[in-house]
Amino acid sequence: MSPSSFGSSSSPPFSTGYFAISSESLNRKALRAALQDVSSGAFVLFEGWVRDHNEGRKVLQLEYEVYEPLAVTEGNSILQEARERFDVSLAAAVHRQGLLKLTEPAVLVGVSAAHRGAAFDACRFIIDEVKARLPIW
Question: Shortest CA distance to 90 belongs to which of 6, 28, 15?
Fold first, then answer.
């Protein structure tokens, strides 16, 4: 399946453990469905939204530009690092590109693990690394 499956499409996402960029609204239900695993007792979802302020200035909307080939490659590396560093079963993430309105989800990160601690830790690691390393402006 295509990476846009984490977008607004109702079909289940492509393979798990995958980072994607989407021009469509993000689909948290599809991400959750892709990360369900019988060996996991925990699922953590981080959803980052467009807020109405940034560094003391009012925000009405955001437009994300992405250098997609590098973002996808590095995003997949981050997910692999999380799987190696934390005891997680599955992990996936998708980031929007284009124009977003206030309260729209800009990024989703999902992690499944046997235990909640590993799921929370891996999810935090992934979003922190995405913000620090990916060519998304």
Answer: 15
